[in-house]
Design goal:
Blueprint (H helix, E strand, L loop, with lengths): L1 H12 L4 H40 L10
Length: 67
Amino acid sequence: MSELELIVQQLEQGDLSLDQSLQQFERGITLARQSQQLLQAAEQKVQVLMQQQQQESLLPFDAPAGE
């Protein structure tokens, strides 16, 4: 994220050449996609954990151990 923020700052300043701007833009798109993938993976993990918690809470409280 910090690299993506730096790229945005550089592009906003407008001090880069056109070629450098395009390279930084491409790098920014790559980083944004990677961040999105990481976010989706984290959301999936949270959903799995929440489903597991819901399944555990559905077990009868007075069920004998081992049954």
